[in-house]
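Students often ask why we bother predicting the structure of a whole assembly rather than each chain alone. The short answer is interfaces. A chain on its own may look different once its partners are present, and contacts between molecules only exist in the joint model. In this exercise we take two input lines together and write out one structure for the complete complex. Read the inputs first and try to guess which parts will touch.
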Amino acid sequence: MNFRKPLLAAAAVIAIAAPAAIAHRQWMLPSSTTVSGTDNWVTVDAAVSNDLFFFDHQPMRAVPVVTQPDGTEGKVENHNVGKFRATFDLHLTQQGTYKVAVVNEGVFGSYVLNGERKMLPRGTNTANLAAAIPAGATDVQTAENVSRNEIFITQGAPTNTVFKTSGKGIELVPVTHPNDLVTNEPGNFQFLKNGKPGAGLTVTVIPGGIRYRDALHEQILKTDAEGKVSIKWGQPGMYWVMVNEGGERPEGPGAGGPRPQGAPGGGQGAAPAGGPQAGPGGPGGRPMGPVRARVSYVTTLEVLAP
Amino acid sequence: MQYRITGLTLAAIGAGLPGAAGAQTLDLSVTIPQLRVAEYHKPYVAIWLEKEGAAPRTLQVWYDFDGRSAEGAGTKWLRDMRQWWRVVGRGMTFPADGVTGATKGAGTHKIALAGGKGGLPALAPGNYKLLVEAAREVGGREVVTVPFTWNGKAVTASAKGASELGAVTVSIKR
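Now the answer. The structure tokens for the assembled complex follow.
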């Protein structure tokens, strides 16, 4: 690790802005992922916590965006933010697959003004970036952050209209449909990074119910050259899947709580240096670590017994 | 089942055997066991036929198709017959013509089907599986598979469930 002090301080700030990437696990848990009939309601818990899927830390405050099978935007109903979790309902009236997504996009970074390094404020994005940097600032380092948290719910037969990609951050392309998973068949998915096959991404798979077992039973997988990964399931149930560069808590010790199990050590230092702005300038003229663009993807998948 | 079915192609199983229609009879016997439980509801039952390389065919679905509650009760729980739902049910529209029936209580239920009528296509010779799946509200779920080979003349095959289903017998003649 070649982080200098200013960046360690930076990590703490970013942790607030992008919890999914650094500390704790962000998740949405639907009451059903597969429903039959023509008029159903599904309710969703949304929270940030260490143990999956137990709400005991923070609610997920953002109101998600619902995409209906016909491509139109659906409605989030009864959104309520509690102490530990948010809940909301979806009224399913169309046949096919719905997507519920929380996407966070932002710009983080720093600049030097009057010899002092300052962090870009929270809430900076590409639109207000220019205004966030004062005149006379030098050595500006920025990187974009795109974190995506999506769940899928299917009424009737699965459809693929909601998997239209935007080319931003990490996105899922189904090989196996995420609402068509059974324990005796592997789940195959492709992940795109900024619209292109995301080779070498780290895929962390953790079954729910952490509280009631000793071992985490996590799988740390890597996408191949085409961005594809094949997940073998254990028991039926809800699985949390997180895709990013370098695995959970890539900032290393200090950024999050203690890891319940051995970290995928190899993934950390090897994380790709992102972007061309590997600036020269920490105090004292020693090189600072580059500001890396952060992209992450989280989904909750229900795997049924055959 | 390893083959993936995306839709329901009518008559796919029986396709390619001209002249066989009308002559086949399929007699089915399905036993729903008596259960000593505190709260009993008649199970939802799906019966379907699979043949490798052909679209599966639903022969019977027993559920609360009359939808006694405002939300259309019955169809909401069809997905609990999860193997049938994944293989063929989710691609169907309900109530499905010719295969829909009311739920049935404990006892042996006999169904007589004619090839080429209702849900049953005229069968081409080959290896088949008849599957019966039962899912009971506040209860369990079970699938009984009855494999058989149809040689074009006569076949009888049976299997037995352990919890939600009793004996299942299929007998085909022409």
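Check your guess against this: Confidence is low (pLDDT under 50) at residues 1-22, 251-287 of chain A.
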